[in-house]
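Colleagues,

Please find the record for the two-part complex below.
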Amino acid sequence: MDRVVAWIARLVFVFLYVPIVAVIVYSFNASRSTSTWGGVSLQWYGELFRDGALLQTLRTSLIVGISAAFLATLIGFLAALGLSRYRLRGHRFVLGAVLLPLIVPEIVLGAALLSVFSFADIRLSIFTMVLGHLVITLPLATLILMGALSSLDPTLPEAAADLGASPWQTFTRVLFPLTRSALLAAFLLSFTTSFSNIVISTFTGGVGSTTLPLRVYSLLKTGVTPEINALGALLILLTIGIVSAVGLRQMRRILAGSTPTP
Amino acid sequence: MTPSAPAAVAAPAVRLAGITKRFGDTTAVHPVTLEIGQNEFFSILGPSGCGKTTLMRMITGFETPTDGSIELAGSSVDGVPTRKRDLNMLFQSYALFPHLTVFENVAFELRVRKAPKRELRSRVEAALNLVRLGHLADRKPDQLSGGQRQRVALARAVVSRPAVVLLDEPLGALDQQLRKEMQIELKRMQREVGITFIYVTHDQEEALTMSDRIAVMSQGRLLQVGSPQDIYDRPASTFVAAFIGSCNVIPAVNTGAPGTVTVAGVGPVPAVGGDAALSGAEVWVAVRPERVAASAVRTPGAAQGTLLEAVYIGDRWRYVVRLGEATVTASVDSAEVSPELAALAPGAPVWLSWRPEHARVLTE
């Protein structure tokens, strides 16, 4: 029985990693077709860096992702601070309202956003897309930061104020150092959520704001070109880079939602 | 009469004028008017939920009074944020910054207030030496014991020499032995640094041991302010009498005769302060057990009661006596217990007496 479980576990692992390995392997395939192996080559990486249109969509995705993640982390931090520190009337309602987009289907959110924008006569652009992504990243960021803040001693900000710290000094000297890893986690999770999003982007993006996932998705109609594999391999490399930079220990702590004691 | 009441030369460290706090329909603090002198060790004593913490938080600026005005050292701080008030607080949870070393915790205020770098190190070291923790400057708070954390918090509160330090039940989390030590330590430090301490506690023994003056609060009201002796020997109400130490509170009627009140089933008993009450009014007589003398033989002027219980507790005997409709406890020094008294069994008659000045007539 144990052997069976062990084998299932191995298969799950293989299943999880086959696509990742496949992307990396095919990014070096000299043949244009994925069905044949034409030897090792770096030509797709070369083509990737010459493909201005694709690089432009990558740039758009980065701009949108970083903006949305930054805003989500900032607003999420303030929301979490308010929700964890003050027991206001309507506390539960506000919390529910912040977290609701987590369970509303994206397609509904996307359509709703589109009708709001067209009703308010706001032209679709990178700006509207950032707003759209903010709707889905803010709940994530708020949730992570609330976990971190609620495990802090609530008297710490009071102690800082008592010792003469302004609200800004309280943030830079006390709250920020104590929630740094949660802030990083909120930023990274918001960024990846935004970076990989297709549905909201479809509804809220305008002319000239095609993101990388939208571009890749539209390429499917003509078949995936090997340079997409090269791009995928680079993104995986970047992810591994971030994970090792942040540190595995840190990642585990972030995902467990606890606060650091640096 | 109040030995430590400040001279009126300098402005009081803290002056509260009609400070009130309401939360919605409930009044947490009824108007409080109070002056706390410079270098005074002032305790606010009351059971939990009596409003003492809210009162303290209004002085620090964490809560805004619904009404009234607060002055620190003669100038109004109404509307002044906490960080600009010349006072520091010692939190019940200590609220040490977990990411900073002991040294940096203590240095926090000096850094925030941009004290000169040259001074900083010597001032932090002086504060740490005051609490005898100079050798632990490089530790993090989670590497310290509860008592040590408490000392760090105290050093952090006094390092900038504020005019006032407020202490919120600071000994609550410590064990009995450490509490006793810290009581003496706190008093010593307060004298050494010459800072006004406002000490909030529900522990009457702590308040009696350390304070120059005590304010007793209950249900949001300030009941009495006075020296420990005042509060103990001359309680102003039955609540104060019963809350501080143990006290016999005997229902009685004011007959209008000077120096006595009448206890049902007993007759007139000596007590002072009855002139404040109307003749015929229902009052209480408060008398401390150690002020009650017990005798096995009839003595002139003593009230006769029935012994319910005699308990030997080493240095004292405690006699629980039914006196009319009341139950009165007499605590007698073992050295002064006569053989006849020691031989008494429950049910035997016993005569209780006290000096008039040791019994207070209370009207509330």
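The domain at 54-223 of chain A is CATH 1.10.3720.10 (MetI-like fold).

Comments are welcome before we finalize the supplementary table.
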